[in-house]
Automatic annotation (TrEMBL):
Location relative to the cell: Cell membrane
Membrane-spanning parts: 69-93, 105-128
Source organism phylogeny: Eukaryota, Metazoa, Chordata, Craniata, Vertebrata
InterPro entries, sorted: Olfact_rcpt, Olfactory_GPCR
Domain of life: Eukaryota
SUPFAM superfamilies: Family A G protein-coupled receptor-like
UniProt membrane topology term: Multi-pass membrane protein
GO molecular function term, any single one: G protein-coupled receptor activity
Chief location: membrane
Cited Pfam families: 7tm_4
Protein name as it appears in the record: Olfactory receptor
GO cellular component terms given for this protein: plasma membrane
């Protein structure tokens, strides 16, 4: 409460919800606007937009590039926000007078950073891997890793 006021917390929560809603709305609108003609089987345990675009009978290159650009902008914005937040958190933790208090605060922060790193690294691998490395079993393992484990 002393580091971040309630007004800032509400703004951060609203920004997180708004960016998530924008991303979901973009993906949903894109999904329902493409004609599907290659069956309805998706090689994932949930309907990922990249898998749905593969079922399209129309040229989906521009759609895929647009979705990728918007998603990367949102991811980059979140990354910058997380880095700036942690710079402020670490500077506040270093001002804690007791070593035990610093240790407790750092252990909590490092666990959070470990979960973020796991999520980001597996999602990067899921979306940016080469098609020569791709297999349905590997896709499923990576999707579970980044969607369920964190």
């Amino acid at each position: 409460g002393t580091l971040v006021g309630s007004r800032a917390c509400v703004r951060m929560a609203a920004a997180a919800w708004a960016s998530g809603f924008l991303n979901a709305l973009l993906h949903t609108a894109n999904t329902f606007s493409i004609p599907l003609c290659q069956g309805m089987t998706v090689d994932q345990f949930f309907c990922e937009i990249s898998q749905i675009l593969k079922l399209s009978c129309a040229d989906s290159y521009l759609r895929e590039v647009g979705l990728t650009v918007v998603s990367l902008c949102l991811v980059f914005g979140c990354f910058v926000f997380i880095v700036l937040s942690y710079v402020q958190i670490f500077s506040a933790v270093l001002r804690i007078p007791s070593e035990q208090g610093q240790h407790k605060a750092f252990s909590i922060c490092l666990l959070h950073l470990a979960v973020i790193s796991l999520f980001v690294s597996t999602s990067f691998f899921a979306y940016l891997k080469l098609s020569s490395v791709s297999s349905p079993a590997l896709n499923l393992v990576v999707a579970v890793q980044y969607a369920v484990v964190p």
